[in-house]
Specification:
The complex is a heterodimer of chains A (261) and B (252). By secondary structure, chain A is mainly alpha-helical. Chain A has 13 helices and one strand. The relative contact order of chain A is 0.09. Chain B has 252 residues and is mostly helical. In chain B, helix 2 packs across helix 3 and helix 5 packs across helix 6. Classes of the chains: A mainly alpha (261), B mainly alpha (252). At the A-B interface, helix 5, strand 1, helix 7, helix 8 and helix 9 of A face strand 1, helix 4, helix 5, helix 6 and helix 7 of B.
Chain lengths: 261, 252
């Protein structure tokens, strides 16, 4: 009897690891996280079916179809500008949330908070820089994306409405950048916003009223800072995300990106 | 790897075996063995020989039938299952070929497509990484401006709007504020929104869109030049300066 037991091969570390992986992947918890067909359930070997499953059984399916037109993946056609605009928005959200931990929208505290962030918070200066330059880059990317779409005639039927959404997104991007401009509460912020909002006051009929509501008074002050903070971190991101969702949805519904030329 | 269902594989194997066991009729006896009724075949032969016969209804039909015979004959020569013969031994006659698009309106033309993963996702991932790297490295070396605390009693000279509004501010030097700050940008934005409805040209080929391309380029260049002048060529009092002589009056 003992001989038979001895003949049984001892499991190697590799076997044990494989058993452990199989055990985890076979568990109810694991399969509750990953959908049937997910590559995290059944592994990935390169095949047309698995290539489809990568998209179909992941959250990416909300953004991308399983297949796209061959010319649509050419970087020289889109220059990735739309995707990069979206990515910069995500980057700005992440860095912006970090900045919110160290910032109070009060005229007595705002500038000091930014100053402390730069001097005393680990990576504070770096993250603030990334937020600033990322914001300028996003304005540029959205603008160039619009130019690219125009030159490709991509706004033509059936994509007219998506172009309109795109113009709204461009304006929202400018507004997001502009509202963020005031928040450091330094001389640059105050006077740039003064110049910008003075122009707005010349709008006929309701110009002064809109300016009054936006500034929370006749001149820029503590109320303006609070209002623009809320606009910048909550209201405008909320609105722009809704319009982005419509924009991306329409891209797919209108038959993917335009072209080829 | 595409997986072929078991029953289809079996059926294909059976068909192959059948073709091997009973070799299809040889080519020379094909016309006689084409399973076309003998009287029809006779009629066709007669029609063929009498060349003066007008191209009446039987002649047309027969000519087709003859062709079917040829097809049936050609099939076995290639060593497969006879093409024209169905499982019940039926022979179809080819009456006419309707090409797609002649009667039906084919709307969905096949499109050359590739898988999003990896073709698109890989490119997007690299672009996102490059973008992050660019922002990251730039942020290490160039710091965002933080001037002294805001002071409503001390107006800096010059006071400039953010760069993307400097085109508007530049126009303030030329027009009444309502025109420069409201009318012109308003008209520009409305024109931009209405562009797809104003442009009735259905083509997206650059060579067909010279007017649209030109006017858009002029529009973009107009703003770009104004922004550049406003950013770099305006100094104290918003007067014209040369940046290489008087220095930069510009903060991002």
């Amino acid at each position: 009897m003992s001989k038979i037991i001895d003949d049984k091969p001892k499991p190697t570390i590799g076997d044990r690891a494989k058993d452990a992986v199989d055990g985890v992947q076979g568990s109810q918890a694991w399969s509750s996280v990953f959908r049937p067909g997910s590559i995290f359930r059944k592994g990935y070997t390169d095949s047309p079916r698995n290539r489809s499953y990568v998209i179909m059984n992941s959250v990416l399916y909300h953004l991308h179809p399983v297949k796209v037109k061959r010319h649509a993946v050419k970087v020289s056609y889109t220059l990735c500008l739309g995707g990069l605009s979206f990515f910069l928005f995500i980057l700005l959200t992440v860095t912006g949330i970090f900045l919110m931990f160290f910032y109070r929208p009060e005229t007595t505290a705002a500038w000091n908070d930014i100053n402390n962030l730069q001097t005393s918070v680990t990576f504070g200066l770096l993250v603030r820089n990334m937020h600033r330059w990322g914001a300028h880059l996003m304005v540029l990317a959205v603008f160039l994306h619009m130019a690219r779409v125009f030159y490709h005639g991509a706004y033509k039927p059936p994509r007219e409405f998506n172009w309109v959404i795109g113009v709204i997104l461009l304006m929202l991007t400018l507004l997001l950048s502009f509202t963020g401009y005031l928040l450091p509460w330094d001389q640059l912020a105050l006077w740039a916003v003064t110049v910008g909002t003075n122009m707005m006051g010349y709008t006929p009929v309701f110009g002064q009223e809109v300016r009054f509501v936006l500034l929370g008074g006749a001149e820029i002050g503590a109320e303006t800072l609070l209002r623009w903070y809320v606009l910048h971190v909550l209201f405008l991101p909320f609105v722009i995300v809704i319009f982005m969702a419509i924009h991306f949805w329409r891209v797919r519904k209108d038959g993917g990106i335009s072209g080829p030329l | 790897m595409t997986e072929i269902p078991e029953h289809l594989l079996k059926r294909a194997a059976a068909a192959r075996d059948k073709a091997k066991v009973e070799p299809a009729p040889a080519a020379e006896e094909a016309p006689g063995d084409s399973r076309i009724p003998a009287h029809l075949l006779q009629r066709s032969k007669a029609a063929k020989t009498s060349k003066d016969a007008p191209a009446a209804e039987p002649a047309g039909a027969v000519a087709v039938a003859d062709k079917v015979g040829a097809v049936v004959a050609a099939g076995p020569a290639e060593g497969g299952v006879p093409i024209g013969a169905g499982p019940g031994g039926h022979t179809q006659r080819l009456l006419t070929v309707v090409k797609s698009g002649t009667i039906q309106d084919v709307k969905a033309v096949p499109v050359d497509k590739v898988h999003t993963w990896p073709h698109l996702l890989a490119a997007e991932f690299v672009a996102a990484l490059a973008c992050t790297a660019l922002t990251f490295v730039f942020s290490i070396f160039v710091h965002a401006p933080l001037l002294e605390l805001a002071n409503t009693n001390q107006t800096p000279n010059p006071s400039k709007a953010p760069w993307y509004f400097l085109g508007l501010q530049e126009m303030l030097t030329m027009f009444h504020p309502m025109v420069a700050g409201v009318t012109l940008p308003g008209v520009g934005m409305i024109a931009l929104i209405l562009a797809p409805y104003l442009d009735r040209n259905p083509s997206n080929k650059p060579e067909d869109r010279k007017f649209a391309t030109s006017i858009h380029t002029v529009h973009l260049m107009f703003w770009a030049v104004l922004v550049i002048i406003g950013s770099f060529f305006r100094g104290p009092g918003f007067n014209f300066v040369l940046p290489w002589v008087d220095g930069l009056f510009f903060e991002l």
